[in-house]
Every structure is written in structure tokens, then in C-alpha cells.
Design goal:
This protein is α/β, with parallel strands linked by helices. Helix content is 37%, strand content 13%. It is built from ten helices and ten strands. Helix 8 (232-242) links the parallel strand 9 and strand 10. Bound molecules: glutamic acid.
Length: 291
């Protein structure tokens, strides 16, 4: 059905859903209803070290309890690694991907030695080494010479996007349309530095899989929390490089706790199931999430 808006809610099953997730899911559902669109659910479970089947089961249960309905089958990212690999290979063929062998400890030490070194919009220091600083040959030679004591044979390289080259290749005028705004938002992917696109243990990344899936699923409207707005710059860059369509974006305000903090498991935010166990009705939780 060409022309029908397609929305998606894309949680990661690495914890129980909280009111922030409920807000995203409910806004997506409402917009789909109001535009005669479709609502997809996507399980973003590429990180096998953090995602758990019980959290995925809880997502289905909690969303159904909230009164939501979504199309089947649900796309589970762990089942589509071939699609992400194909996209990565296209970027590699353009010469925009390189292997970096530096460990997290080496990156931390390098950043510590450079006072004032910039951070990305999420607050993580930019990758401080140049492309090929420790190439594979240097990595092997260093090991053979007994050097690089923090390196081990089992340490996989990360595949990174050469951001400067990627931005140059993408050309000018990169931006996106934000729902309700009159002016386009200018993308600034360079603010993220040489982002990781894949690692051995997780052969894709959030940025890569989200743009591949949004395109494959025909998503026309990406509606998510404002904490992901800055990442849209990277998503637009990848979309342009890979020749993927540009969705319309809406980044909604986050649900904050009494101290003004973004909800998260790490600060002990109450989950939807805890609210339910305390006797909150689905209608009350819907009102709290949208309030
Ligand atoms: N999986 C991401 C999250 O749970 C959301 C991805 C997106 O909406 O683009 O934060």
C-alpha cells in the first residue's frame, strides 16, 4: 500500500520497559491511528551480552497490557545479521571502513593524555587515534615482539567509519525534517567521530542496524525520544551513503523522574510491571506516560 505511513517502536530487550518506553510506544500508536498508518514492533537485540529472552517476553506482555497492537511478524534484529553485513560491505567497498585494534584501556589512556579532547553528543570521548594508527600488520608485529602488553590474540578489532571521508563522500546539504518544524535540521555527523560499525562479538551496531531496518521495513516516520535526536545525524549520513530513503523524524520529550533525570534501569526507575504490581491500571499508566 504505497503512501501509507509506517511507524515503528524499537525497544531493546535489555531490561524491563518503563514509562519512557511507554511514551514512545503510545505516541507511535497514536500517530499511526491518526494518520491511518501501520505500527511495527522491532526487537533491537543485537547485543547478545545484554539482551535476554525474558525481557523480550516482557515487552510483548507489557505492550499488550497497555492496549497496544502491532503487526506480525515482529522483526528481531538478531535474525538479520546478513542484512547488516551486506550494508557494512557496501561501506567497506567505498573505502569508508577501517579496522581499529586499540583496546578500550588504550583509548582511555590516550584520551586522558589529551586534556580538552572532545566528546560525542552522548558524552563519550571521540576515538582519539588516526585510521591505521595500529594497523593489523603493526598489531601482529607488536605482538610478535612481545609489545602491546594489553593486546591479546582474542581481542577483536572494531570496524569504524572513517567519518571525515564519509562526510566528504556524502556531500553537502545533509539534514532531516523534524515533525512539526518548519526548518530542516542540519546533520552534524562529524560530532560523533569515527563511530564503531561492527565488532567481532556484535557484528553490527545500533547505527547501522537501525538504518538498514528502517529502510527494509519501509518505515516512513521515526518517532523516538529526544535522547536519540543527535544520533539522527549519523543515521542520515548512513542513509545517504547507502542510498536509503529519508524518513520523517519526531523526537519527543523524555519522561523524567522527580529529580529531572531520564528514566533508566541503572537509576532504579520503576518498570511498567512494577507499576502494574502496585495496582496501577493500564489507563493510569497510559496517562502517566503521556502526561
Ligand atoms: N533500540 C533503541 C532503544 O531502545 C531505540 C532505537 C530507535 O528508536 O531508533 O533505545
Amino acid at each position: 500500500m504505497p503512501g501509507v505511513p509506517v511507524f515503528r517502536f524499537a525497544p531493546s530487550p535489555n531490561g524491563y520497559l518503563h514509562l519512557g518506553h511507554a511514551r514512545s510506544a503510545l505516541i507511535n500508536a497514536r500517530m499511526a491511528r491518526e494518520t491511518g498508518g501501520r505500527l511495527l514492533l522491532r526487537i533491537e537485540n543485537i547485543d547478545a551480552t545484554r539482551c535476554r529472552p525474558n525481557y523480550e517476553a516482557a515487552i510483548y506482555e507489557d505492550l499488550a497490557w497497555l492496549g497496544l497492537d502491532w503487526e506480525q511478524p515482529v522483526r528481531r534484529q538478531s535474525e538479520h545479521m546478513d542484512a547488516y553485513r551486506a550494508a557494512l560491505e557496501r561501506l567497506e567497498a567505498m573505502g569508508l571502513v577501517y579496522a581499529s585494534f586499540e583496546s578500550r584501556a588504550e583509548i582511555r589512556a590516550e584520551v586522558a593524555a589529551r586534556p580538552g579532547w572532545p566528546s560525542d553528543p552522548d558524552g563519550a570521548p571521540l576515538f582519539p587515534f588516526a585510521r591505521g594508527a595500529i594497523g593489523e600488520a603493526g598489531h601482529r608485529a607488536g605482538r610478535a615482539a612481545g609489545g602491546f602488553p594489553s593486546l591479546s590474540d582474542s581481542r577483536p578489532p572494531a570496524l569504524r567509519l572513517d567519518m571525515a571521508q564519509a562526510v566528504a563522500r556524502a556531500g553537502v546539504g545533509l539534514g532531516w525534517r523534524e515533525w512539526g518544524a518548519t526548518e530542516p535540521v542540519t546533520a552534524d555527523p562529524g560530532a560523533w567521530g569515527d563511530v564503531v560499525l561492527a565488532r567481532k562479538e556484535t557484528p553490527t551496531s545500533y547505527h547501522l542496524s537501525v538504518v538498514v531496518d528502517d529502510a527494509l521495513q519501509g518505515v516512513t516516520h521515526v518517532v523516538r525520544g529526544t535522547d536519540l535526536k543527535a544520533a539522527t545525524s549519523v543515521h542520515r549520513l548512513l542513509q545517504r551513503l547507502l542510498g536509503l530513503p529519508e524518513p520523517l523524524y519526531r523526537h519527543h520529550a523524555l519522561v523524567l523522574d522527580a529529580e529531572g533525570r531520564k528514566l533508566s534501569k541503572s537509576i532504579g526507575s520503576e518498570s511498567l510491571r512494577e507499576l502494574r504490581a502496585r495496582g496501577a491500571s493500564a489507563a493510569e499508566v497510559r496517562a502517566m506516560a503521556l502526561g
